[in-house]
Amino acid sequence: MYAVFMSSIHKGSKKPLTDRQREILGFIEKALVREGFPPTIAEIAQAFSVQSNSIRGHLQALARKGVIELVPGASRGIRLLKPSSEAALPLVGRVAAGRPILAEEHIEGYCRLGPELFQHRADYLLRVQGMSMRDAGILDGDLLAVQQTPQARSGQIVVARLHDEATVKRLRLAGGKALLEPANPDFAVIEVDPEREPLVIEGVVVGVIRTEPA
Length: 214
Description:
This protein is an alpha+beta fold. The chain folds into two domains: 10-80, Orthogonal Bundle (Arc Repressor Mutant, subunit A), CATH 1.10.10; 114-209, Umud Fragment, subunit A, CATH 2.10.109. The chain is built from three helices and eleven strands. The protein has helices at residues 19-35, 41-48, 52-64, and strands at 68-70, 78-80, 89-92, 107-111, 124-127, 143-148, 157-162, 165-174, 177-181, 190-192, 199-209. The longest helix is centred in the N-terminal third of the chain and has 17 residues, at 19-35.
C-alpha cells in the first residue's frame, strides 16, 4: 500500500499555526517517516532557503504551541508530540530486548491517520527492519500498521516476541507447535514449542505503508 498518510498533527494544539509553521511541521513529519529520524535545523533551513535563525524561531514557536519538543544539545533534537485532542498512532522504531513495544523510548513520534486507510483498527505503526518478509510485500523501512492483540489466527502476519526479541513473521499453527515463517527463502522458519519457550503475540499486521516506491 502506498500512501501519503502523515497529515499535519497541529490541530491538537491550543494555538493555530501559521502557514510557514505548518510547512515546517510537514517537512519534519516526512523526514521522520522517510529517514527514521528528524532533520537538523540546517537541513530545514536549506530546504526552505532561509537562515537557520529563522527556522530556530519557528521551531521554538511550534514547541510553545505544543506540537513538538526540542531536546537541548541534540543535533536532531526535534520530537513530535501526540496531539491532545485527536487520535494518533505511535510510530515505533527500533525495539530494545526485554522492553514493551510501546515503551516510551521506542516511540519516535505520533502520526494521525484517516480511519478509512485500513480495514481493521490499527493501534501503532512499526518500522520494519530487514527483508525477511520481502515476498509478502513488506520491505526494509516500511511502516506496518499493527492492531495490538495477544491472539492471532494461523496464517496471519504478526508481530511476535521470542526470547525478548520482536520479529515480524507469518504465524502457522500445526501439531501443538507454532511456526514463524519468513517470506524470503534466505531466512529460516522459526519453530516454537510453546511448552518449552514462551511466544508472545504483540499484534497483528493490518496494513503496510511505503514512503518510497519499491
